[in-house]
Amino acid sequence: MRNTLRQVSRSANFMIGFVTVMLILLMVGIYPLFNPGSPLDMIGLGTFFKPGTYISMYDAVETATAYTLRIDDAAAKRVAAKLPMADRESMKRWLIAYGIAEDAIHTDDLNDLLNLWNNTYDESARPAGLTSAFRKSVARIDAALEGLLEPLDVRVYTTSPETGETRETARIKDNQFINVSEVVNTRRLWLGTDNFGRDAFKELLAATGVSLKIGLIAGVIATALGLMLGLLSGFVGGIVDDIIMFFANLFTVIPGFVLLILISYSIGQEQRGATVVAAVIGCTSWVWTTRSVRAQTLSLRNRDHVNLSRLSGHTLPRILVTDILPYIASYVVMALILQICSGILAEAQLSMLGLGPKTTETPTLGLMMFWGMTYAAHQNGAWWAYFPVILMIALVSFSMNLMNTGLDQVFNPQLRS
Fold first, then answer.
1. What's the farthest any 2 CA atoms get from each other in the chain?
2. Is a pLDDT exceeding 90 seen at residue 181?
3. CB atoms within 10 A of CB 214
4. What DSSP designation does 50 have?
């Protein structure tokens, strides 16, 4: 055993996969300690907020200390944010149609562009080749440019609840800044929010934990069923082998995923919890494990040590556990890893079809993909609502397959270097 563990620990593939899975489990377990609460809490009154740090505007004005800083590019960034490149291209198009040479228009130099625009633009002009709708859009851009380079102070007024009198309570200059650490209410949304306004990063880690749980339960059930049936079929033989292989062939003829869909649909949405879905996946995924264990048991049942156990009067369970199982234990471990991976992928496929665990209890990776697809996250440019989920599924699957490859290299003499 010690020598086996030493060989496993020296396998680069296994260790990379194992460390990756452990890091994922560590994040899943630790992050809720820093950000407690349900991952299904809707914190955003809207859909698909971008990733970033969100600061309470009320607290920033009322409680944070204002610091005066001289930052050279602050004004340029402010102007650039108010005048996006699309608007600059529209201005350039109007100027060219008006008769300005294209090489004299520099959209990257805001000061030069605005000076040229202020000296040239005439709302009453009708340059050739421009539609009425385009001229109206340019007029709206021109109206928004007023005072762009000369920022005015922002004044905050409040109304007294006793007298109803409105008075100025704060004045914010363009060169005043606040320290984020001094704002009472801030929230870092690493992956923004999803279509329901929920913290997508918190939801992703919670969903990863649930999907791993589903994969583990499904993998244990499928491996246990496959191991038990494969041992009985291969060792006992006869009518027992015929019956087990009849059902194995039956499940082989019927596509497993189709059977999984039919069973999940028949259960109903309200009864489909994470554990129920995992059990259904496990009960429909035992066939290939059964066939593989049966084949290995057939090659072992006539070995000398097995015949000696028979002659000694040992019971069937004892022979299977002590004389056959140790020789196929390595394969059982590899089969369990593959079954866990298959269970995670099966849940994701079911949830994508709307047949996964019920949506009101807990998130899964498949459910997050289903929500992103249903609410058109890809069409809205909300990559954070679906791409990290795809990446997490791929990372977990790849890591487990690396572990399985590493174990195969250790236990399969033909693959040892």
1. 108
2. no
3. 30
4. P
The conformation of residue 185, written as its DSSP 8-state character, comes to: -
Q: What angle do CA 136, 137, 143 make, to 5 degrees?
A: 90
- Say what the pLDDT of residue 221 is: 95
CA distances for 11 relative to 8, 22, 106, 303, 337, angstroms: 5, 16, 59, 31, 16
Write down all domains in the chain, each with its CATH number in brackets: 2-43+195-415 (1.10.3720.10), 57-70+150-189 (no CATH), 84-143 (no CATH)
| CA Rg value for the chain | 33
Spatial CA neighbour of 133 closest among 102, 181, 94, 75: 94
Cβ-contact 127, 97 below 8 angstroms: yes
Contact 368, 303 (CB under 8 A): no
Answer for the pair 369, 348: CB distance below 8 angstroms, yes or no: yes
Q: pLDDT confidence of 257, banded at 50, 70, 90?
A: confident
* 7-65 tens-digit pLDDT: 777 888 889 999 999 999 999 999 999 989 889 989 988 889 999 999 998 888 877 78
Token couple for 18: 């194992």
pLDDT at 256 over 80: no
Token pair 């879905």: residue = 277
Share of the chain above pLDDT 70, in %: 98
Taking the C-alpha atoms of residue 297 and residue 234, their distance in angstroms, rounded to an integer, is 5
Distance CA 98, CA 270 (A): 65
Using CB atoms within 10 A of its CB, is residue 300 exposed (0-12), middle (13-18) or buried (19+)? middle
- Name the β-bridge partners of 372: none
Instruction: In whole angstroms, give the CA distance from residue 10 to residue 150.
Output: 66
137 is written with which tokens? Answer: 């859009």
